[in-house]
Amino acid sequence: MAQAVYAGFILSRQQINHHGRLQLCYWLKTDQGTIKAYIDNEQPVFFIRYSDQPQAQRLLKQESIETSFKNVGLKHFDQEEMIACYCQNTRSYHQAKQALDGVVNMYEEDIRHCDRFLMERFIRGGVWVQGNSVAKTGYMELTSAKLKAHRSYRPTLSVLSLDIECSGDGVLFSIGLASENHRCVIMIGEPPEGQDTPAYIHWAPDESALLFALMEKISVLDPDVIIGWNVIEFDFVVLAERAQMLGIELILGKDAQPIDVYKGNYVRVMISGRVVIDGIDTLKNATYHFDSFRLSNVAEKVLGEKKLIEQDDRLEEIIRQFNEDKLSLAAYNLKDCELVLAIFAKLNLLDFAIVRSQLTGLELERMGGSVAAFTNLYLPLLHRSGYVAPNLGEHGLNFESPGGYVMDSKPGLYKNVAVLDFKSLYPSIIRTFCIDPMGLIEGLKSPQDAVPGFHNGSFSRTRHHLPTLVAELAQARQSAKQARDDMLSQAIKIIMNSLYGVLGSKGCRFYDPRLASSITLRGHEIMQTTRELIEAQGLEVIYGDTDSTFVKLPDQWSISKCEAEAVALVNIVNTFWQQECSASFDLTSHLEIEFETLYHTFFMPTIRGQAVGSKKRYVGEIIDNGRAKLVFKGMESVRSDWTEIAKKYQQDVIRALFDGECLLRITKGYIDSIRAGEVDHLLRYSKRLGRALEEYTKTVPPHVKAARLSVLNNQSRNLSKGSVINYYMTNNGPVMHLENNKIDYEHYIEKQIYPILMMIPNYENVLFQLTGQRFFSF
User: Can you give the pLDDT at residue 609?
Assistant: First the structure.
């Protein structure tokens, strides 16, 4: 067998027992095709304290569990020496953990060895792989493989979009597939007589034939990545369950192995040689925000397209079409596949997943996982500094870390408000003040030469990793911006901003409230001092939030004068922090404030029904390419739990406020339109079920009442946790379908119009003219 070396990208990873030893298996995509690489004779490992070794050996010997202990030169954060416990395979590994659980403290025992193998070699997505090669059908197999990090390799991956249609009980109707060059729907049934059947429909007599046709299609199309909408939690779960019920091995892997669906804290789909990526999870991880992540909503917002079935009782219509109009169902099924494919392409979601894997080492399909990403990046560095990661909560501290600094706002209507933003404030604090898990331990050992933190925290000036990691990410992001690699820049930004969140998460093994507090309280200090510095220049700060400072500039200043003054303020603030960090801490400042936005007109509302200003809610007018544009933050117009009429009214009433127009005329026009029934299509509420209908007991919100009534009237309707309930308020209460119910127009006026009006300065006169002396409570 010939030795070969390939540049590749890791698609999937797994660990198996092979002849009584641990074997690692990695599927890779290379320019030469797909590779299945085997690494033999690995030993899974965890750590225990040196003082616990005799007891651990005794317990393992009693259970006849074969392990070996080795001194690897690592210690705990409390400085006690640690011992590595090696096992022959995953079976003995799990037996050893079970035998020691609750008796001997184990460390890093939750890390899969197939992850640790890559982590310790700093392999993040891209690899050089070498081994003995053997050609297989559809892929190359490498044995005795060796892997080395490849920093720059980016794969070209083939993508297939998959979507199923089924009954409420999971009985399959059809499966849609769409790729760049192929479209098809496998449909149960026969071509309807007298109608032309589209060539993309492949007919199957029953569910078994449907599944076999799917296996054949996947084999022929041979995708690297399968995408879909809720495809992991729903589509593949249903496919696997139906195959199991029918006694069919659902073979979708490149090596003719069946699919493996794991259900634990989350659903995991394993298809050898392929990756399954969900569109919803990827959008959320790329920090896209939508009022709803339903495919219909995202497709309309991103593509300007709609699904072919839009009504609330979608499942009923799918069942009807399967029984009466299979051609329409096939078109609907295929359209969903095409929409997902187009969304991935338009937003470069696969590129984002690849870049994220290259930055963190996480699997392509792994969504969320900020803690896992931090562990991947930090743990190998920690080991090289002689430490084992601690277990959760071993520091014994239980006080809460404060959140970001939010200044009391000064409500009102303003001209010329400049917003100054600290660029990546929390990462910059980490970098400037040497905040780091290991640095905390080293700093507490030698506090006399450490950087002081908060809550008795001290941080080593030299023994740390996180500040360096932040610096490397910042430099990489700058390079990405210069290269106009927007996807890489966005991925780096997300990772940098997650670092504080991870250190502040009690689910992270490195969580310590002294770490999180030394970031947020330093942020409080920076924001308060920056405010004082700006006000010393004779200007007014009307609001501040986490890393943003809102500065009121004189009304009579021109736009160019305001922008010039904002730039001057930036220089003053940045110079101050450079001097302050050097003089007070002997540190180099990486704090950098920027001029972000100038609001030509700005409105900060009061808390509804109170005189004090609200927080995280405002609207401002900017000049964008010579045109005025309103920017809403936290207001009803950007919230999903308000009706469209409320959003439109707020847009128009704010525009009227800014332009000095008559608020009474605008408001009365909306009220008259509502009472006349002219805007019924804008009165629909939309809210998702947070749990099953029967679980709402103490309080029953309107959308739950509407859903229960709908199910009562139609037993076949399936409304479960996660379902979006669209409903109206009527004289008979909340309902999903109006039918013979009359809309309660006064409800919408009092609950959707008046509350927004009451945020406007001097609203009382307008409200009085609209209502006379009627009394309303909000």
Answer: 60
Neighbouring C-alpha atoms within 13 Å toward the C-beta of 65: 24
Residue 119 belongs to a domain: yes
Q: Which residues, including other chains, have CB under 8 Å from residue 631's CB and lie 6 or more apart?
A: 597, 599, 619, 620, 621, 622
The residue-averaged pLDDT of 668-695 equals 91
Q: Is 775 exposed, middle or buried (0-12, 13-18, 19+ CB in 10 A)?
A: exposed
The answer on 296 and 190 residing in a single domain is yes
Confirm whether 386 is domain-assigned: no
φ, ψ of residue 554 in degrees (nearest 5): -55, 140
Confidence of residue 289 (pLDDT cuts 50, 70, 90): confident
Compare 311 and 634 and report the one with higher pLDDT.
634
pLDDT of amino acid 610: 64
End of a domain among 123, 149, 175?
149
DSSP code for 494: H
688's enclosing H/E stretch is strand 685-688
**Do 494 and 471 reside in the same domain of the chain?**
yes
Based on the fold, state whether residues 103 and 220 are members of the same structural domain. no
Residues 458 and 477 in one domain: yes
Asked if pLDDT for residue 778 goes beyond 50, the answer is no
Instruction: Indicate left, alpha or beta for 73 from its phi (over 0: left) and psi (-120 to 50: alpha).
Output: left
Contacts of 236 (CB under 8 A, 6+ apart): 259, 261, 267, 269, 276
- The residue with tokens 């091995």 is 249
Which residues, including other chains, have CB under 8 Å from residue 440's CB and lie 6 or more apart?
453, 457, 458, 459, 512, 514, 515
Condensed to tens digits (0 to 9), the pLDDT of residues 333-382 reads: 999 999 999 999 999 999 999 999 999 999 988 866 788 899 999 999 99
The whole-number pLDDT of residue 499 equals: 86
| The pLDDT of residue 214 is above 90 | yes
User: By residue range, what is the domain housing residue 132?
Assistant: 3-149
Q: What is the pLDDT of residue 640?
A: 61
Q: State percent of the chain over pLDDT 90.
A: 71
- Alpha-carbon distance of 605 to 756, in angstroms, equals 10
Phi and psi (nearest 5°) for 393? Answer: 70, 15
CA atoms within 13 A on the CB side of 492: 19
CATH of the domain at 741: 1.10.132.60
For residue 602, which phi and psi values (nearest 5 degrees)? -145, 135
Where does a domain end: 578, 604, 630? Answer: 604
First to last CA, the chain: 79
State yes or no: pLDDT of 311 exceeds 80: no
Q: Are residues 112 and 164 in the same domain?
A: no
Query: What pTM does this model have?
Result: 0.87
Domain presence at residue 334: yes
Distance CA 162, CA 165 (A): 10
Locus of tokens 């014994």 = 396
Residue 621 lies in a domain: no
Has residue 15 got a pLDDT over 70? yes
Q: Note whether 471 and 566 are same-domain residues.
A: yes
Q: Give pLDDT tens digits for 28-37.
A: 999 999 999 9
pLDDT category, 632, cuts 50, 70, 90? confident
Q: Please tell me the total count of domains within the chain.
A: 4
Best CA proximity match to 317, nearest among 302, 307, 303: 307
d(CA 467, CA 443): 14
Structure tokens at 100: 């020691």
The 10 Å CB-count burial string (b at 16+, else e) for 161-179 is bbbbbbeeeeebbbbbbbb
Residue 400 pLDDT more than 90?
A: no
Average pLDDT over residues 35-64: 95
Number of H helices, E strands in the chain: 23, 27
Reduced to 3 states, what is the DSSP secondary structure of residue 538? coil
- Is there a single domain that holds both residue 325 and residue 415? no
CA 32 to chain centre: 33
Average pLDDT along the chain: 91
Using an 8 Å Cβ cutoff, are 376 and 119 in contact? yes
Same domain flag for 667 and 570: no
